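The records we work with from here on pair a chain with its fold. Each token is a code from a learned vocabulary of local backbone shapes. A record is reproduced here so that you can trace the correspondence yourselves:

_____
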Amino acid sequence: MSASPAVPSTSAERPVGPLQLLALGVNGIVGVGIFFAPAEVAAKAPGLGAVLAFLLTGLALVPVAFAFAVLGRRFDSDGGPVVFARAAFGERAAFLVGWVAYVSAFLSTSAVVAGLAQALAPSLGLEGPVGQRVLASALVTLLAAIVASGIRVSARAWTGLTVLKLLPLAALLGVFLVAAGAGRVPPLPATSTDAAWLRAGLTVMFAYQGFEIVPVIAGQVRSSERSVPMATVGSLLGAVGLYVGLVWACVVALPELASSSAPLADAAGAWGGSSLSRVVAAGTSVSALGICLGMMVTTPRYLSALASGERRLLGLDGMSPRGVPSRALAVTWGLVLLFVNLGNLSELFALSSLAVLLQYGVTAAALAWLAWRRERGLVPSHALLAVPTLALGLTLVAFGASAREAATTGVAVVAGLGLWGLSRPRA
């Protein structure tokens, strides 16, 4: 499919509506992490501490979502943090932010696709590593084909998958709330909560990340100045309510929550029996498929956005008439296809949390700088939103980031500087 340089779309050409954009945000947040994170968090903050970790981290992220919303409504083009950084700090900063976000996104996509293929392969009669890699390659190619068919088709697909992934989680939460209403739920086990939620904060943040992808497709959204803020903040607030309820259900149902390998499925069995447990367990695969599709939609747009400024990079900013950055999608498909065939991908998440924190930090700094300069209709009071965002990022890095994550981020930055050298000023 031929592609032309990206230009702002007219309203009539924008097929993504507000509810589909909200579904993208919810799909981005409610991925595979919530199916396993309660156990990992309970190991660091048991009992009431686990519930508080999800509640307090979620509330701490609300100012971050507002920062993305305030800027997102003022930039009517694809790219999110990339275009925010470009407007505030120039091309080099935008390029590095976009590159780190892109590397993190395609590595995470590779890891999730490989994990999904590993889970599904036995039921499809595909045995061993070769079978898993064949299935993973087929999944990547299928998802890329859906995305290549146009943003309209992708929006319908991610909205449908979002509904399907939420149904089993809503069923578990509903059964638990009915039990609570009937007085059959004991009080939460009291434990020391001092700074436990901070120790678990980076894990919880990983489960909540995803709302930041909403502005990445702003150029394809109708009435983006209203839809982007609504979907960004709304998806996070909805996830906070859902997650706190689910973790509460797990903590009360499973005294040994920290040792559970499938906490949501185990809690579903405790509250609703084996049938509900199987439905929730199956929801893990649906959720993984949904997050993979969402990432295949948004990940190429980081690449096209970093190539759409004052410097050219291999024509990666080309946009098809159907709203698809075709060349960036092809590169992303090739990279994900390569990595899903490399074997053990458990280490590919090493960059993810710090890459998201980088996006949070750059967005907050861009908001503060643009507000101070009164650009884009901002006033200095908007800069107040940057303070809690930067404080949260620094706190989570101090308490939760590992040396391996920092080293991986450093390597990505160095690689980005090398790629910058390949770009050329636009005529």
Notes: The chain has 15 helices and four strands.
